[in-house]
Amino acid sequence: METIPQITEKSVDVVGVDLGVKSLATLSTGEVFPGAKSYRKLEAKLSRLQYLNRHKVKLSNNWRAAQLKIARLHTKVANIRNDTLHKLTTYLAKNHSQIVIEDLNVSGMMANHSYVACNVAKAIADMGFYEFRRQARVQV
Predict the structure, then answer these.
(1) How far is Cα 45 from Cα 76, in angstroms, rounded to an integer?
(2) Is residue 58 part of a domain?
């Protein structure tokens, strides 16, 4: 059973997307999409779990259970981020025929870990700029 692609009417043919740290994306039409900031919200919980795990005997049952909780939390953060990005790129693909994204050197911005830029690098990683570009490129 093959699915037939449906051609939908586009509200605006070309749209520019500006990626940012405060809001995930701002479109040239004026629409603003907030980022989930999943890591920022769950960072304290993750820190606490890792703190409690650091004195456990490695490979013990308690250590394994704690590692599992940490892994589940990392998965939750990733799933929230991916959900937000999928919803945004799907909206863009359905409502715009051409998407123009600013050219950012994401890996270069992530490499800067000076004191002030460390928070910026963390915020960029939390938004998932690279994954957004990858998904938008595939769906256009």
Answers:
(1) 12
(2) yes
